[in-house]
Structures are given as C-alpha cells and as structure tokens.
Amino acid sequence: MATPRFSEGDFDQVLVEENRSARTYTLNRPRQLNALSYQMVAWLLEIFLHCEKDSNAKLVILKGKGRAFCAGGDVAAVVHDASKGNWRSGAEFFRTEYILNYVMATFIKPQVSILNGIVMGGGAGASIHGRFRVATENSVFAMPETALGLFPDAGASYFLSRLPGFFGEYVGLTGARLDGAEMLACGLATHFVPKMALSLLEEALYKADSSDPDIISAIIDGFSQQPVLKENSAYHRLDIIDRCFSRRTVEEILSALEMEAVDRADDWIPEMIMSLKKASPTSLKISLRLIREGRLQGVGQCLAREYRVVCHVLRGELSRDFFEGCRAILLDKDRNPKWEPSKLDLINDDVVDRYFSKVEDERWEDLKFPTRSNIPEYAIAKL
Question: Which pairs count as long-range contacts for 181-184, CB under 8 Å and 24+ apart, including other chains?
C-alpha cells in the first residue's frame, strides 16, 4: 500500500484530539458537508492504523463538524479527473476509501460514530462498519448514488443486504432518506441519543477508560431514547417493500410497485416509482446485483467487488452515466440527466456481467487489504 504524502492543510480536514484513553476524530470540511476528499480518507486510514497500535488508545469517537456527519465522497473532484482521462486518480481514491472501510469493519477497538446530521454515501461507509452508530433527531441517512449514475458503495452491498427483509434493496435503489428513528429501527444505528445529550455522552465515554464493548454500550444506553417512528415512515410499509423489492429484477420490482399503486391510495408508492424511473437504469441493475450477492459474502469480498465495478464506471467505456449524473445533479444542476442506455430493457445480464469482471489494464489489480490480527469477535462474522 503506497504511503500518501500530506501537506500542512491536509491535517486540518480531520481534527485529532486525545481525551484520556479516547481518540476523537472530527471530519472538518463543514462548508462541503464534510465530503470526503482523498486527503481525508488517506489521513483517516493512517490514524486508524496508528490508533490500533497505540496501547494508550482504547476507544475511537468519529464525528463531523457542522450540520453533517459526512455527505459522502467528494465525487466532483473524482469526475473532474476522470473526465480528462485520469481515471486512475479516482480509482486510487476509492481504493483508499474501501481499505479504510475494511479497517473500520475489522477494527480491534470500539468505534463510536456520532451521526448527528447528514449521513450519505461514503459517510455511511465511514460509520456503519463501526461497532456503535449513534443517531439523533437531526440524522438524515441516504445512499443516493443511483441518481448520480453510480451505485451504493463503500461496503453498502454488505450492510444494506443485511437490513430486515428487502429494506436494503429499497434504500439502495431508490435513494430514500431515513431519519434517526428509522435508522435505529432497521439497524443502521445502534443507538438514538438526543443532540442535547451528545456532549455529556462524549464526556462519559472519555471517563470510561475502557475498550470493553459491553461497558461502552452500557454508557451509550444511559443516554439513549426509543424514538417514535413517524406515521408516514417507510418502515411501517415493510410488507409492501418486501412484496415488491424481493422480485428478481428491477423491471419486476417496478411492475410490482405499479400494481400496488393501482390497489392502494398511498402517495408513497408513486414517489418510489418516480425515484426508480429517474435513476440510471444501468446503476439500478448493478446495484441490485451487488446487494443480492452481498448477502452471501463477507465485507472484504463486497468491497473488492465494488472496487471492480467502480473502476469500470470511472473508465467510462461501458457507460458514461456517472459523468452525466454528476453533470446534471452537481455541476449544471438541471436535474435532467440523459442516461445511456435510457431504458432497463436495453441492459441485459451480459452487460451487467462486464462491470463485475477484472479491468483489462496491465497496471490494474484487484483490491488488496492489509493483514488484520486480533479481530474482535463481533467483527469475525463479517469476514
């Protein structure tokens, strides 16, 4: 693994604080909603690996400055380079990010992620793989990648595939937003703590001087509440979600939702249909396969498959949807992407298969992870 070079300003993007035996890492790009730059993921990877070897460090607290935990990866920078033919720059970003996700998933010390605010895309990857995920009344979770011509990544094919029933397919394909109560209900969050109590929670964690997950969990429990799901929450519609999103193909999922719309006067169903019809057809098919196959694979296997797919996306030889989605949503902001192919029935299984194949480039290699040792018992099941 290459050693990244850092300039003075890079360290300011993640603030590091030592509080007794706890290490607090704060994502510090508030104006960009803490979107992950390459410097951030490389620096986070370095300090996580260093913390693992630090016998004085027993606990990591990860949080974001401002109104977001993390709004995802800084894909605008990735697209800028890839559109000029430098797809390897983007590949290096995703390679480093996915290795960080793997280290977090197998981290030997408890990671407590404070998910106060926006948690999207790569922000989910930087938190959901950790042991403890604390949502608040301000939490907003989403994996909106299919609307960008990408796919839910950063290990999402692992953690979405393990949500109740087919809730992961629903979240991953539609880009639906979940609040803190819904995050807790489906398991994306392990606890719900009101924002006003977060500083007291952090102080209690500092004083704990422990790396015992049971002790950490008991401390967070002391500040936790059981939030009430809103009346219009999608989590109240698990029967519809399971009935529709369990179908074998995206076309069948859409057809099932359209049948439900005929039988039920529920505005939520047409909204889901519209979300799917606005998304990249190619992204939808890739995403469904990733989540379905992810159910039977460990976190490392999921991340390695995602890396293959994202490299094909960056190369733009099979489809330019990622570049078009970023143009329409992030750059020109006309929110009217022109997908190619434009219809689901124009994308057969052979096309999708190509995204999962090795990249035909002599300088490219599959994702490799650092050797892990002393993996905690709760993380072993992920492998």
Answer: 181/135, 181/227, 181/228, 181/229, 181/230, 181/233, 182/141, 182/229, 182/233, 182/234, 182/235, 183/115, 183/119, 183/133, 183/135, 183/139, 183/141, 184/135, 184/227
